[in-house]
Structures are given as structure tokens and as C-alpha cells.
Design brief:
It comes from Paenibacillus methanolicus. Its main location: periplasm. Pfam families: NMT1_2 (PF13379). This protein is α/β, with parallel strands linked by helices. About 45% of the residues lie in helices and about 15% in strands. It folds into two domains: about 200 residues, D-Maltodextrin-Binding Protein, domain 2, CATH 3.40.190; about 100 residues, D-Maltodextrin-Binding Protein, domain 2 (3-Layer(aba) Sandwich). Helix 3 packs across helix 13. The N terminus is likely disordered.
């Protein structure tokens, strides 16, 4: 091929590439990458996976990378270090950072779940309605001290007239990931468990759900998308798009059945049985665990403060306005 013909061919290819890029809408050029660190992988966070599965983030021009940063302390460390852009974790972690006097506070901007996600599981099935007094004098396998599950659990026990430190043999030296296995092997007569472990134990006959800590402890900003104040100042448009995608997912979850939600999110839970997933989602949905909008309201925040105060984890009560920015959630809902 002559140099002249080669030049003409290269020019034609260049023009065609430019034309194809124009037909594509130039979406790649405007797409913003955002990295989320979630505290754990859980069906409790179903709206997050719906936002990914239904391309709600993509529709807003966001390319989201999801990582699981097992544990609230690890998730917050990753956020503060700049290894992730947004954390999905309990609001108590932002309060802990605030208590340490951070110059760059962590701001809660979009709520995902609004109740505790744990259940009280008994080794033996009782007859009739559950009597909380039956816990007294028993071995109780609880959650990690200072974490929201433990604080919400103890808050509920105190409401029921039970002193967790005096009326129970409280076991808290088991790592979060090993709690189900410890109970299955014989540790404790009662255990505080997340789903799907609670439903799996029921199916296998290893335990029986007798109460919900989510129902008993009331509404809380239990799991919230948050980021550093400095990130918000530099990326307001990105945070707004993120909140809008979350709201779309919340509305979708609210309008669809547990079966439809399970089918949407199961690609993120390849080892989870579909029937178990449906049961878990139905249980969380029926008790109102999935927030239907991203607002972190002040009443829920104050309930969180009460829970943390009861657990002895607060040096001072943090103001809602200092650690919550609802403007992005409000704009998403317009």
C-alpha cells in the first residue's frame, strides 16, 4: 500500500473514531469514579446493591467501585486515609471521629438503614410470646463493645428491665465473624445475630428468632453513607449524584416485593440460597429497616445519642447539624 493511500486510510479511521465517540454521548468523559467501603456484605444493605444492579449510579454519571472493609474501625480508617471516597457504616463511627477532635469531620449525607439489624436468637424454641425476663441468669453471646449492634442490644435490654452486666453472663470476647460458629458449637443460650445467620439457623434447627432488636430499639441512623467534609467541599456535584442514586434505589426497594429485590441483589451473594434471601429481605422490609429516603432526621439522631449515652460511649452529645448534611438528600427528593 502506498504512503498516500495509507495516509488516507488513517485519516478516515480517525474521523470514524471521532464520529463514534460523538454518537456515544461522551459519557465516559464525564463519568466520575467513586469508591465505597462497606462495613460488611449484608442483605441488610439491599438498596445499595439495587443501586448498582439497576444502574442508578451509572444513570447519574458515577462509576462506583464497591469494596468490603470488614469492621467499623477498618472502614473509618480507610475513609480517613483516603483509600475510599465514601463509607457505608454506622453513624456512631462519625461521632467517635468527632470526639477525637478531627479537623476534617466525617459528615453523614445519605441514610440507608434506619433500625438495628440484629435479632435475638434462642437455642430452644419457647411457647407463646417471648418473655424478656427469661434471659436473666443465662449465657448471652453478644456483639463487640462500642459497636452499634451491642449498644442497641444493651439499650433494648435496659428498656426491658434487664441489666446486661448483672443479670446476664455476657460474652463479648468473640470476633464478629465467628459469633454464629461459636453459638452453633454450643456457646451461649441466647445470641444476638444479623441476617442471614438468624434465618439459616432457623432453617437448620440450630436456633429460633424470638425478638428483633431493630423493632425494640426504635429508629436510628444505623447505616449511613458518609464522607469527609473536605471531600464534600471539593465534590458537591458528585455527592449530589450519589444521594440521588441512593434515593432511586430506596424508592425501587419500597415499591417491589422481597422476591424481586432478592433477584436483583443475589449476584452480590452468590453463596446465598434464594429462599433464605427472600426471607431475610421480607423480615427487614416488614420491620421498616430499609429507609425509604436518605434523610438523617434529628429525632433518629437523638435516639442514637441516647443509645450511645446509655452505653457510656459519649464524652459529649454531638449536635445533629455538626455531623449531618441533609441538603443532598433533600435535593434528591425534589
Amino acid at each position: 500500500m502506498s504512503k498516500k493511500r495509507m495516509g488516507a486510510l488513517l485519516l478516515a479511521l480517525a474521523l470514524m473514531s471521532g464520529l463514534l465517540a460523538g454518537c456515544g454521548g461522551g459519557s465516559n468523559e464525564s463519568t466520575v469514579k467513586v469508591t465505597i467501603g462497606e462495613v460488611t456484605r449484608s442483605l441488610f444493605y439491599a438498596p445499595e446493591y439495587v443501586a448498582l444492579a439497576k444502574n442508578f449510579f451509572k444513570e447519574e454519571g458515577l462509576e462506583v467501585e464497591l469494596t468490603t472493609t470488614a469492621g467499623g474501625d477498618k472502614t473509618m480508617t480507610a475513609l480517613l486515609a483516603g483509600n475510599i471516597d465514601v463509607a457505608l457504616v454506622g453513624s456512631e463511627t462519625s461521632i467517635y471521629v468527632h470526639q477525637q477532635g478531627s479537623d476534617d469531620p466525617v459528615i453523614n449525607f445519605a441514610q440507608l438503614t434506619q433500625t438495628d439489624g440484629t435479632f435475638l436468637v434462642a437455642r430452644e424454641a419457647g411457647s407463646g410470646s417471648f418473655d424478656w425476663n427469661s434471659l436473666k441468669g443465662q449465657d448471652f453471646l453478644g456483639q463487640r463493645k462500642g459497636g452499634m449492634p451491642q449498644m442497641a442490644g444493651e439499650f433494648t435490654l435496659k428498656k426491658k428491665g434487664i441489666d446486661p452486666q448483672k443479670d446476664l453472663t455476657l460474652i463479648q470476647n468473640v470476633d464478629f465473624a465467628n459469633i454464629p460458629a461459636a453459638f452453633a458449637s454450643g456457646t451461649g443460650k441466647f445470641v444476638q445475630l444479623f441476617e442471614p445467620q438468624a434465618s439459616i439457623f432457623e432453617k437448620e434447627g440450630k436456633g429460633h428468632v424470638v425478638a428483633s432488636f431493630g423493632v425494640e430499639s426504635g429508629k436510628l441512623p444505623y447505616t449511613v453513607f458518609m464522607t469527609k467534609s473536605s471531600f464534600i467541599k471539593k465534590n458537591k456535584d458528585t455527592v449530589q449524584k450519589f444521594a440521588s442514586a441512593v434515593y432511586k434505589a430506596q424508592q425501587w426497594v419500597d415499591a417491589h416485593s422481597p422476591e424481586e429485590i432478592a433477584d436483583a441483589v443475589l449476584p452480590f451473594f452468590k453463596d446465598t440460597d434464594r429462599e433464605i434471601a427472600i426471607s431475610v429481605i421480607e423480615r427487614y422490609k416488614s420491620q421498616g429497616s430499609y429507609a425509604t429516603d436518605p434523610i438523617v432526621d434529628e429525632a433518629e439522631w437523638n435516639n442514637l445519642v441516647d443509645v450511645m449515652t446509655s452505653a457510656g460511649e459519649l464524652q459529649e452529645k454531638p449536635a445533629h447539624k455538626d455531623l449531618v448534611d441533609n441538603s443532598f438528600a433533600e435535593n434528591a427528593m425534589k
